[in-house]
Inverse folding.
């Protein structure tokens, strides 16, 4: 399966608490819900496109708990996101979760990079990561991501966990698709190309 990361991100790189003020207050974060005023129909359509390609989900513990508290309550048969999340296999990266109640779910072992590498060898379309910032940090560090889908909202949050940590692994990216929604949200799809090259600007 191809491992894809789809995430909401601000212009200053924040990916924490996009859905509401009480969603994720780790580190004293107080600015949750920054996507809500800007989320538009075109962005929703893109999200539906993404979820149509999913065969399984890989989630961090925090995101798993957030999703488990919300998505089982959605019973709309036409909700593609809810149907996928509630029925497809979910793999949870956690050292503390022992009995996941929202299934089908499997808790991965301590050797997370090796476990995920094995998952990627399984047949299927996409193993999708949504949210899960700390997990994305680990995936990025071990070059396990095949495609990033960054949904950048036109806002500077100024606080919170960034999608890519500093210092972190330097990575070149190939832009394979982009679009801009009526709300000014920039949707960009990138594929990692390995370590970037560096050079010197010469002024004549």
């Amino acid at each position: 399966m191809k491992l894809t990361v789809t995430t909401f991100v601000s212009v200053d790189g924040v990916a924490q608490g996009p859905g509401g003020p009480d969603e994720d207050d780790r580190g004293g974060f107080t600015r949750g819900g920054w996507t809500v005023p800007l989320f538009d129909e075109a962005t929703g359509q893109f999200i539906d496109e993404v979820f149509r390609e999913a065969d399984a989900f890989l989630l961090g513990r925090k995101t798993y708990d957030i999703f488990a508290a919300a998505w089982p309550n959605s019973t709309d048969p036409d909700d593609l996101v809810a149907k996928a999340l509630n029925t497809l296999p979910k793999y949870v990266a956690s050292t503390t979760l022992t009995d996941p109640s929202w299934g089908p779910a499997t808790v991965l072992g301590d050797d997370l990079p090796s476990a995920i590498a094995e998952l990627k060898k399984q047949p299927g379309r996409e193993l999708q990561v949504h949210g899960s910032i700390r997990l994305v940090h680990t995936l990025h560090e071990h070059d396990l991501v095949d495609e990033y889908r960054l949904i950048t909202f036109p806002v500077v949050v100024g606080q919170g966990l960034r999608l890519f940590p500093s210092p972190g692994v330097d990575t070149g990216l190939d832009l394979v698709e982009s679009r801009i929604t009526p709300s000014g949200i920039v949707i960009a799809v990138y594929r990692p190309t390995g370590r970037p090259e560096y050079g010197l600007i010469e002024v004549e």
Q: What stands out?
A: The first helix runs from residue 41 to 52. The mean pLDDT is 95.
